[in-house]
Amino acid sequence: MGAFEKYQPPTEGVRIVAHETELEVSDNPVIPFIEGDGIGPDIMRATHRVLNGAVQKAYDGQRKLCWYEIFAGEKAQSRFGEWIPKDTFEAVRHYSVALKGPLTTPVGGGFRSLNVTLRQVLDLYACVRPVRYFEGVPSPVKEPWKMDMVIFRENTEDVYAGIEWAKDSDEVRRVIQFLNEEMGCSIRSDSGIGIKPISVTGTKRLARKAIRYALTRNRKSVTFVHKGNIMKFTEGAFRDWGYELAREEFAERTIPESEVRGGDLPPGKILVNDRIADAMFQQILTRTDEYSVVVTPNLNGDYLSDACAAQVGGLGLAPGANLGETMALFEATHGTAPKYAGQDKVNPSSLILSGVMMLEHIGWDEAAGLIVKSLEETIRQKRVTYDLARMMEGATKVSTSQFADAMVANM
Ligand code: NAP
Questions:
Q1: Which atom of ligand 1 is nearest to the CA of 338?
Q2: Catalytic pick from 7, 68, 160, 213?
Q3: Atom 41, ligand 1: which residue's CA is nearest?
Q4: Which of 394, 396, 379 is nearest to 144 (CA)?
Q5: For position 356, what pLDDT does the model report?
């Protein structure tokens, strides 16, 4: 790496080095973090406290996370006059793993969104969202514990690729003219147009990551969710390329649903199947525990992950990761909740659980396990922040920092 332009290098710790399929992690890795806007500082502080506590406890002081602050959003703008300094991209690239708080989308900053920019510039193509139930959390369904899914959503393609033109623009006129005159379409002249690219490359690298994840985490199935009955050459192709990849690279360890006889999986193999997106929204309610790892194009994944999260009690407990070939950026799935900024009030669980994903990613499973157990225990004790307290009978409402303290005490 060239030296940073604006940032001082970290004062302690060793860089995590990403090799093709594994990470080289020392006992004191440098972990860059973006504090985030709004409630970001509150939940990041709590997350550091919980992760440090778990690492200390799990490894008896032999290991340590060396936090290294990098900047994006309002803090970057006020310090460096930029929303995302180049050094931030460089730091995530160089250190391979980073944790991020929520960022406000600047109005008139020339960005669609800072989050989308980070994902696209760093080619973090897989958005990974595990959704599971924590006992005691109020849920709108009868058996929320049946949900234990990990959603792999494509992050760079589909109608989210940002290729669109406004009605009446010069560009849209040219596109409509081309489509109507040369491609035999009949598009109304007063249309806006968006393009939906889905590629073999984008699909197969996502499918590969999801199947590898399912195999290493002993998951029982991988399901491609698509709308291929209608959008044949994008979503239908997504499904076909998914099966193709499973056959080409994981034939020994996977079996497609069409080859399963009598409902039993051959030992050592995981099931690969597919579901049409609309049917899948029913399936997550009616056959919740039949699904484990789910792979979807960008838009389906956006909808599906919120629907799944709602089923287990909402976004407050939903973590996320954006993974590239070698880089990983872990983040809470909610936004900056500006009305609660600086009040030490909100629920830090989403970012803490993103930290758990980060610990698992670097192979520190013991510390990750401690955090999950202590979160379960803290919720069981009904010592929760306002968002859960308002829905739980007999709860003790605690602040963000008290929640973190309770979690550390419960380890
Ligand atoms: P939001 O920040 O997620 O907040 C919406 C509501 O969700 C809050 O008012 C609160 O509901 C609840 N909530 C969110 N986080 C919570 C937490 N940690 N604990 C408890 N409750 C929580 O969504 P928004 O207001 O639509 O967006 C605000 C800003 O965040 C926007 O600038 C948006 O662009 C940005 N954003 C960033 C990301 C990201 O960085 N990845 C993601 C989404 C949005 P109650 O008031 O009902 O308690």
A1: 28
A2: 160
A3: 102
A4: 379
A5: 97
